UniProtKB/TrEMBL annotation:
Organism taxonomic ancestry: Bacteria, Bacillati, Actinomycetota, Actinomycetes, Kitasatosporales
Name by which UniProt lists this protein: Integral membrane protein
Stretches with biased composition (Basic and acidic residues): 312-322
Organism: Streptomyces variabilis
Alphabetized UniProt keyword annotations: Membrane, Transmembrane, Transmembrane helix
Signal peptide bounds: none
Start and end residues of each stretch annotated as Disordered: 289-322
Membrane-crossing segments per the record: 61-80, 86-104, 116-135, 141-166, 178-196, 208-228
Length: 322
């Protein structure tokens, strides 16, 4: 179907279009393939940078900006400027608005009414009389003269404009129309055909370059996988993992068990030493200071009832059960 449509379109087009199409498409393909590959590489790099670098950095900068700029100004506005503004507004109301209102109502309003009455008597009435009996007749006369002058001027301007119109039409419009119809329009149609074919060739080359870039990218990915990833995976699975298990079973586990045994023996020895030191200290104190009474007897009974286990733990057995 596509071949039939393309044949029908080629049959309906001119020879100029058919002659220009193939060379333009070949040149466009050669020029566009490297550009498309570079564009695809930049798109992949941009997506990676946007997801891994720019977005986290942007979120961190936004949080820092809010912490450094927004939150302090919000706190300053909420806890300092708003109360200060309320206090200044109350002071302005008390010190300025109320006195100004009283001055306007009690002083300026009566004074303004008096001035308005005196202005009306001294200015408005004489001005109305002057306008009605002097300026109105003079204005009517000047208007009649102006209408006559305007009529004469309009006739002169209309005649000059008509002459200029026909002169411009004969000397400019008709030659320009002839040049447009017989020169510029055919050249424009040819240039439009060339531009359309170049645009179609660039679009076709761009799509082909996309397929080429995709194929090259997949080939590079497969090459990287079979030369780097798969050998590394095989080495890790067949060499490093058995070696690691052997090292863990033969070296690390015995060393850890020995370390735990040494630590346990050391703790038991230290516990026995602490018990011995405590017993010696009690014997020395009892030998030097004497028995402390009932409390001393209870301590002796507790000491006699303590039996050190072979592991070094203090196991206390009541005297009745011994």
């Amino acid at each position: 179907m596509d071949l039939e449509k393309s044949r029908e379109e080629q049959a309906g087009e001119g020879c100029l279009v058919v002659a220009l199409r193939m060379p333009v498409r070949v040149v466009a393909l050669v020029l566009v393939v490297p550009v498309r590959m570079v564009w695809d590489t930049l798109v992949v790099a941009g997506r990676f940078l946007n997801g891994r670098v720019f977005r986290p950095v942007g979120r961190a900068l936004a949080w820092v900006g809010r912490a450094v700029f927004v939150w302090p100004f919000v706190a300053l506005w909420r806890w300092v400027l708003v109360p200060l503004g309320a206090a200044l507004r109350w002071l302005g109301l008390v010190l300025v608005v109320v006195p100004a209102g009283w001055l306007y109502r009690r002083v300026l309003t009566p004074f303004g009414h008096a001035l308005a009455w005196l202005g009306h008597r001294l200015l408005v009435v004489p001005s109305v009389w002057l306008y009605r009996w002097v300026l109105t007749p003079v204005g009517h006369a000047l208007a009649w003269c102006g209408r006559g002058v305007f009529a004469v001027t309009s006739l002169l301007v209309a005649g000059i404009a008509t002459a200029l119109y026909w002169t411009a039409r004969v000397l400019v419009v008709w030659p320009a129309a002839a040049v447009w119809r017989w020169v510029l329009a055919p050249v424009g149609r040819v240039l439009a055909v060339v531009a359309r074919e170049v645009g179609a060739a660039l679009g076709h080359a761009w799509r082909v370059a996309g397929y080429v870039s995709l194929a090259v990218g997949r080939a590079l990915a497969a090459l990287f996988r079979w030369t780097v990833v798969e050998p590394a995976r095989w080495v890790y699975r067949t060499v490093l993992t058995p070696v690691g298990h052997a090292v863990r079973d033969a070296v690390l586990r015995p060393v850890a068990n020995a370390a735990r045994s040494v630590g346990r023996i050391t703790r038991d020895a230290l516990h026995s030493v602490r018990l011995t030191v405590r017993q010696v200290r009690q014997d020395v104190r009892r030998a030097l200071l004497g028995g402390p009474g009932t409390a001393g007897k209870r301590d002796d009974q507790a000491v006699k009832g303590a039996v050190v286990s072979p592991g070094g733990r203090d196991e206390r057995i009541p005297l009745s059960k011994r």
